[in-house]
Amino acid sequence: MNQPIDFDQIDLMLPPPEQEPDRQYYFTAKAKRYAAEESARLGRPLTCCIQTFGCQMNSRDSEKLLGILMQIGYRETNDEHADFVLYNTCTVRENANKRVYGRLGYLNTVKKRNPDMLIALCGCMMQEAQVVEKIRTSYRFVDIIFGTHNIFKLAELWCRRYEARRDAVRKDAAGPGKGGMVVDVWDSADRIVEDLPVERKYPFKSGVNIMFGCNNFCSYCIVPYVRGRERSRRPEDILAEIRRLVADGVVEVMLLGQNVNSYGKTLDEPVTFAELLRQVDQIEGLERIRFMTSHPKDLSDELIRAMAESKKVCRHLHLPVQSGSSRILKEMNRRYTKEQYLELVERIRRAMPDISLTTDIIVGFPGETEEDFLETMDVVEQVRYDSAFTFIYSKRTGTPAAKMENQVPEDVVKDRFDRLLKRIQEISAEVCGRDLHTVQKVLAEEPDDHLDGYLTGRMDNNTVVHFPGDASMIGKIVDVYLEESKGFYYMGRTAGAGGG
Ligand code: SAH
Ligand code: SF4
Ligand code: F3S
User: Fold this and answer.
1) Contact 90, 124 (CB under 8 A)
2) 361 CA from centroid of ligand 1 (Å)
3) CB 260 within 8 A of CB 230
4) Which residues line ligand 2 (CB under 6 A)?
5) CA separation (Å) from 350 to 199, 304, 308, 347, 456?
6) Tens of pLDDT along 132-167?
7) Please, is 433 exposed, middle or buried when counting C-beta atoms within 10 Å of its C-beta (0-12, 13-18, 19+)?
8) pTM for the full model?
9) Which of 58, 281, 435, 471 has a Cα-to-Cα distance from 27 of 20 to 30 A?
10) How many whole angstroms separate alpha carbon 206 and alpha carbon 475?
11) Which residue has the higher pLDDT, 115 or 52?
């Protein structure tokens, strides 16, 4: 937000405005008043707990949702016995889904003990009609359901549910969902609502959405169906947000999109991602720029140049390959071949020899043969990734791959998965030690969970370093001498006066 909003000044006797974000400011003010009454009745502050599943998009959405809840007057807690519990869900693989159902069963027992509690579900799973249907019938204790396109409406939905329940209690209606579940899921979004409150997890680093949705329709992937078509934010809005973040103490931003390389194509005045990156690079006070995710088919030479010429863009690129077999890549609708991918890696490394490369790989896509799998192993051998996320193919209803015959038997997939993971870990351990005995810039992020008097931080290339330090260093970029390599991370010591 440009200016903090004074919600107490909003006149609730007037009808709610139609325009956004004013409409949401109105409902936030209203919710704030209800919450204050509730809190006075209970004689304690109200608490909220958000559980986030899935990717960086969801993490950023959760920061926005928490921003709204804090304005309403909630205090954040990690405890699911809170007054308001929200699950921000993911549906990219079947097990993400299963976890949510499992946890809901537990929440039901919590709510039986505290009937005033509100339970809300949002995120990618809620964009699936069959999921919402199942929750309506089998999980009737849920209070609010909304989707990925209308997270900005949380305060309004909260008011609707609160008023419905209050009225039902007055009329003494019975049943677990007194007053009825509030369900509001949109198929698509025609606009991007700017200027809503956000509550960042870290004071010194932040994700910044540059675009929403995806147009790629990789044949295995549900994201385009649950996140909608690609929409880019205007560069001026992005730059203004980052300037505000920097003024507020942020030194590192992560530019977020399902495919940042196609940023700007949908704007009235198209801009390339490389152009945006060069503009972000000029923001004074900003020290590090990261971005996620890069689709190999759209990674331009212009972007490689912009990265190489920048001192702030981190030397790390997440470049999902998914498979090493050109035949499978075609079936996946990835629109590059193994050779094109390897050639791209070579161009990137020529421009930035010290770059750290990471990837995503799917094992067991329908029709994957042993030969196809060996092609994937070959890419891993040739690229030598710093690390890789490996996934067992998961059938997602509604995607083209779900209808493909010749799904690979489970035991075959498991065997391939284990072989791949083992090789990735071996290479990772070899590659990751390469900066040993050098001094590196490390952003100190948090106290070490396991070692007293130590901090955990990240190098420019995203590798984790543990080093002795105190809380006053958190959020600062410090020189650290890497003393010992532990495979995936380093032990170090600050290389200030007398060190290094
Ligand atoms: N937009 C990003 C990633 C989106 S999802 C990209 O294009 O790279 C993150 C990862 O989940 C994907 O890279 C893919 O490896 C994996 N994934 C997506 N759908 C999957 C499925 N049906 N089964 C297994 N893994 C999947
Ligand atoms: Fe899914 Fe492909 Fe879009 Fe990534 S690029 S979100 S894998 S459809
Ligand atoms: Fe999951 Fe949605 Fe992200 S399906 S991976 S949370 S875009």
Assistant:
1) yes
2) 8
3) no
4) 214, 216-218, 221, 223-224, 258-259, 295
5) 40, 10, 10, 5, 31
6) 999 999 999 999 999 999 999 999 999 999 999 888
7) middle
8) 0.94
9) 58
10) 12
11) 52
